[in-house]
What does this fold into?
Amino acid sequence: MIILTGGELTLDEVKRIVLDNEQVSLAKGAEETIRDNRKTIEKLISEKKTMYGINTGFGKFSDVVIAEDDLDDLQLNLIHSHACGVGDPFSEKISRAMLLLRANALIKGYSGVRPQLVNQFIDFLNAGIHPVIPQQGSLGASGDLAPLSHLALALLGEGEVFYQGKRMQATGALEDAGIVPLRLKAKEGLALINGTQAMTAVGVIAYFEMEKLLKQSELVAAMTLEGLNGIIDAFDHDLHQVRGHQEQIETAARIRSYLSDSNLTTRQGEVRVQDAYSLRCIPQVLGASWQTLNYAKEKLATEVNAVTDNPLIFSEEDKVVSGGNFHGQPIAFAMDFLKLGISETANIAERRIERLVNPQLNDLPPFLSPNPGLESGAMIMQYTAASLVSENKTLAHPASVDSIPSSANQEDHVSMGTIAARHALTMLQNARRVIAIELICAMQATEYRGVEKMASATREFYEKARTIVAGITKDRVFSPDIEDLADWLKNKEESEIKQKGGVLHE
It folds into this structure.
């Protein structure tokens, strides 16, 4: 059970709640804080104070004053009109992350909602009810309005949800779970949808996946070094220490550790004096990719505990302040930066694939074919990797540099942060397939060199991967192999292999 305070949620706790379905509860005293904040709103309404989105319209309608009898309808109309998302739904884990992050923001007690609204989020999380939320439609600056409106629909017993492995109407899921649909009061609809929780939820999942992929890409690169009799001197500690980038130093250390007992690597001058950059510069490139990940981690760790509503209610001063905390620029930049790291992780891997299959660049069988000429071997796998890398280069274009005015130019600068985060996830899937192709080729090359000569760490990884994809003994349809290995890397390796002291152990 993880206790939510609104300000102390860690990324590790997000992972446990979202990926491991750990239960949650409100911190002691949280309901009182929320209730006190709600009383401030009710007091100001009774005093006929004009407050955006509470007793006015939204966006360009902010100058339209709403009658007190219509305030509840105003909030329901908001949710209905803003639920304009389109496209395939987000995954259940992203939907669950959105529930968690929006609840955590509301718990802090600046959004003017009632405790029962926050408890509705808690009940959904603990029952495993996850709203069906279309991926497309957010500008990432008035809050993630469209995605969060679809999330809000489910809390009201409307729309669709994922529940117990099925996609179904929310009414049925709430009835089965014994949860009463929420009825919105003044300010609560706006509080549900003003925020960056869609882009942040996608960003957090992208962070988790990228962290895993970078660890795996280092190990696969180490295996490629063995398949090409790579020069281990390029990973010397002193060489990397004098440059000073910590992530580069750590990547080099891990590669050295993985290959510490290998009989397939060489020293400079034994076979060649220097390797190509795609081998020699693994720490410099992957270390820089780790830097993009660390930057994203820093911004995400802040945003999961951020208040991104508008307006905000400060109870001690009886103050309602309209601002722009819903603007997603910090996360948009972070996701666009992360995309560069994803792109280059795959880019350099594709160049290593080329070195594994190109007979002009190695002494291995051409295209790792068991019968060159009659059989093409891994020739077209490199084509696929090149295609995926090229697609990633297109997706790496920053979404955050674009802006289209909305709401009759009232909302005239937007972040497109949710697009940036979505593109990052797509790029990760592409990159994972490239790493899977490199792994297939690296395994084939090390078999040619002699598996018994491999380092213990890479040999262990090789043996596990061989349970998923067999060696190339003749041409076959390789598409399922690539997909199966990519799926294995995504879903199984983290639980099956743990890192300790730079060497992988079960």
